[in-house]
Amino acid sequence: METEMLFSYGTLQLEKVQIETYGRKLKGKVDVLENYTVAQLEITDKNVLAKSNKKYHPIAVKSENKNDKIDGVIYEITTNELLETDKYEVEDYKRVLEIFKSGHKAWVYIAV
Fold this sequence. Notes:
The chain has a domain at 31-63 and 79-93. 22% of the residues lie in helices and 46% in strands. The protein has helices at 15-22, 46-52, 79-88, and strands at residues 3-8, 28-34, 36-42, 56-62, 69-78, 93-99, 105-111. The longest helix is centred in the last third of the chain and has 10 residues, at 79-88.
């Protein structure tokens, strides 16, 4: 089974969202995404709202400010679970591969 690394800085850290999306609680390591800042995105997708119980979700935005950073967690998930995450994230997000402060590479959802 292939594994993927996924950085979460928002609702994917919630146990309820993990269980409803993946059927299990994820294990991860704290890391930092540099040169990004967090904005708030209003969620209107009923399925996403039902899982997160949050009307606004954080969204990573690339920044020119070298001091900007986002704290979060890198989770190890399967390729199939990554595809399930694509379904959870709404169209305002896109998935990109980034390098984190630790030097690890992971997928992260950022503003389109």
